[in-house]
């Protein structure tokens, strides 16, 4: 048995039900309201990144469609500072912007390494999406209207179905690998592959609940992007805090040493 698997098995999984999702969201909102400045700054950073994508892609929506969906893959890394705030609040410790900013000091190689892996996965999807749309769309996809007409509502072929299937094929293992691994890496002294294995164990133990949670994250994120990404100002930190509470109710990592 590999050392990573042995370490992962030291982490006990908690039973979970779909009704607990409402509690994650409620406590996430409480954390956001308690430390709004840190949350708004994180949300503004994500919105600014999205606006930069819009500016760089210009009228090349064939590229933008993949970029925004790939953006969702790496979003958990951007939430690291907000996880730290939720962690501090749960322990009755001072929580604020300073706590969040300390997470960005480059002294956590495990978190940095995992962030790079997620960025690589996101980049792979962007390139795959762009190649698929440009190769098989019946015309240039330069705007959201083109994407709707030539990809989503195309009468011939199954480009949109293929695009969605390939996206899900990539997103599913990335989600399964990251849903609890990033907060776990922040919270406990655990190896990267042990954290990833634990995340997979969580998903396999409760696929229905974790699938519902994933669908809710994607749906709310898409809705937040509609008003010129302004919804991300509030929704991004809210979901980040909620994800921390999901982690604490999904696993019991008390057998491992705390990470300072």
Q: What descriptive keywords fit this protein?
A:
260 residues; mainly alpha; 2 strands
Give a brief description:
Helices cover 75% and strands 2% of the residues. It is an all-alpha fold and 260 residues long.
Task: Outline the structure in words.
The protein has helices at 3-9, 20-34, 36-57, 61-78, 80-90, 97-102, 109-136, 144-152, 159-178, 181-187, 192-205, 207-225, 232-250, and strands at 12-13, 251-252. The two termini are 29 Å apart. It has one domain (3-252). Helix 2 packs across helix 13, helix 3 packs antiparallel against helix 4 (61-78) and helix 5 crosses helix 13 (232-250). The model has no long low-confidence stretch (mean pLDDT 84). Helices cover 75% and strands 2% of the residues. It contains 13 helices and two strands, in the order αβααααααααααααβ. The protein is an all-alpha fold.
Draw up the topology in text.
Layout: H1 3-9, E1 12-13, H2 20-34, H3 36-57, H4 61-78, H5 80-90, H6 97-102, H7 109-136, H8 144-152, H9 159-178, H10 181-187, H11 192-205, H12 207-225, H13 232-250, E2 251-252
Antiparallel strand pairs: 1-2
Organism: Inhella proteolytica
Protein name: DUF2189 domain-containing protein
Keywords: Membrane, Transmembrane, Transmembrane helix
Number of helix segments?
A: 13
State the share of residues found in helices, binned by percent: over 70%
> What is the beta-strand fraction?
under 5%
How does the helix and strand content classify structurally? mainly alpha
When the domains are counted, the total is 1
Succession of helices and strands? HEHHHHHHHHHHHHE
Please tell me what the overall shape is.
Answer: globular
Low-confidence stretches: none
Largest beta sheet: strand ordering: 1-2
Please, what is the average pLDDT? Answer: 84
Distance between the termini: 29 Å
> What about the largest sheet?
2 strands, antiparallel
């Amino acid at each position: 048995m590999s050392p990573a698997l042995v370490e992962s098995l030291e982490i006990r999984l908690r039973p979970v039900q779909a009704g607990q999702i409402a509690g994650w969201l409620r406590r996430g909102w409480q954390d956001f309201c308690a430390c709004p400045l840190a949350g708004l700054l994180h949300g503004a950073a994500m919105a600014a990144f999205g606006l930069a994508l819009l500016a760089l892609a210009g009228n090349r929506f064939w590229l933008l469609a993949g970029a925004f969906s790939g953006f969702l893959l790496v979003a958990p890394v951007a939430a690291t500072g907000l996880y730290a705030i939720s962690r501090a609040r749960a322990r009755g410790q001072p929580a604020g912007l300073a706590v969040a900013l300390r997470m960005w000091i480059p002294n956590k190689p495990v978190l940095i390494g995992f962030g790079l892996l997620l960025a690589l996965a996101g980049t792979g999807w962007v390139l795959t999406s762009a190649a698929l749309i440009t190769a098989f769309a019946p015309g240039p996809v330069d705007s959201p209207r083109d994407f709707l007409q030539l990809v989503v509502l195309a009468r011939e072929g199954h480009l949109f179905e293929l695009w969605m299937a390939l996206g899900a094929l990539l997103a599913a293992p990335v989600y399964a690998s990251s849903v609890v691994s990033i907060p776990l890496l922040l919270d406990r002294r655990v190896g990267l592959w042990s954290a990833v294995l634990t995340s997979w164990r969580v998903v396999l133990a409760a696929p229905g609940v974790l699938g519902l949670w994933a669908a809710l994250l994607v749906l709310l994120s898409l809705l937040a992007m509609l008003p010129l990404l302004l919804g991300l100002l509030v929704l991004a930190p809210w979901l980040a805090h909620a994800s921390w509470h999901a982690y604490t109710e999904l696993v019991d990592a008390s057998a491992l040493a705390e990470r300072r």
